[in-house]
Amino acid sequence: MAHKVGIVGGDGIGPEVIAQGMRVIAAAGVELDTIDYDLGGARYLKDGVVLTDEILDEWRGLDAIYLGAVGAPGVPPGVIERGLLLRMRFVLDLYINYRPFVAPDGSHEFVVIRENTEGTYAGEGGFLRKDTPQEIATQGSVNTRHGVERAIRYAFELATTRRNHLTLVHKTNVLTFAGDLWERTFNEVAAEYPQVETAYNHVDAACIYFVQDPQRYDVIVTDNLFGDILTDLGGAVSGGIGLAPTANLNPHGVSMFEPVHGSAPDIAGQGIANPLAAILSGAMMLRHLGETEAAERIRVAAEATASETGTTVEMADSVIAKL
Ligand code: IPM
Ligand code: MN
User: Is the overall model pTM greater than 0.85, yes or no?
Assistant: First the structure.
């Protein structure tokens, strides 16, 4: 039976790269039963709709969601990010943000497991005395034992299927409350995985190692904001953000797959966006759907295309030719 997949092309280059991802999936012989959702900045500017409860209910019944990118000029910051992407992550409880990177020298792959529902992203905070000279803005970081522990446990389990090496990245020397919860939880769970070698890096140091010595990493686990920043850097040092895929996973429900990159309105509509990150996200989606063989063929073909240049369609053609 065909897998039921919701498609959110979104804004800018999103629909262009997702269209190529769909072509590659079809060429790999996997049949998807797709439902298109017109959502994103453009839709919001048209009729004010960002995301509805009805759509979220529908999504719960899907096998996966495949998303391009959202965000359009003219939409105030946060409307689409918080109202669509983060709402999707929070309401569908996509608590693992899984971002793999090929090391710059091509020697190995390392993975960042980013906690995806808490931290500074939770939206805690507010204004006091807004629009006065005494204005105060606070933005808290929410860290629950439950949320931290499930991300850490996922990372340990993943580490056991790989090189048995896991690094916690945080800023425990300054964020002494959140950092303490993360570190204690990490150490407690580590005791259950004696076969996994563990390490800890402060996030600023991790930035240096990402550039100078990524060989030291296999699996990394970190909080939402550190993970956001670190994975852009990961993309930049491992062939460019045009190559970096994401899985937003709810291990007990529907999951969502998207490239790390954004909607890039500056190059939208020109047919020049690199579709490889979307294609690799498609491969991650297929693996999640149990289509392991097609997923692996696409991943290998897309990685072999990484050094090439071409239009959006040419890049996808090149991947398809290698399938
Ligand atoms: C990402 C993006 C999002 C994030 C934005 C668009 C809200 O940068 O997926 O990394 O910060 O999580
Ligand atoms: Mn980001």
Answer: yes
pLDDT, one tens digit per residue, over 141-158 is: 999 999 999 999 999 999
CB 51 within 8 A of CB 83: yes
Annotated catalytic residue, options 38, 93, 232, 317? 232
* 101 and 209 Cβ atoms separated by less than 8 Å: no
Strand order in the sheet with 197-202: 32-36, 3-10, 64-69, 256-259, 245-249, 96-102, 109-115, 219-222, 165-170, 197-202
Is the CA virtual torsion 235, 236, 238, 241 positive or negative?
positive
- Ligand 1 pocket check for 85: Cβ under 6 Å: yes
pLDDT tens digits, 178-235: 999 999 999 999 999 999 999 999 999 999 999 999 999 999 999 999 999 999 999 9
How many angstroms separate the CA atoms of 282 and 68, rounded?
10
Dihedral sign (CA 178, 180, 184, 187):
positive
From 11, 63, 98, 171, the catalytic residue:
171
pLDDT per residue as tens digits for the range 152-189: 999 999 999 999 999 999 999 999 999 999 999 999 99
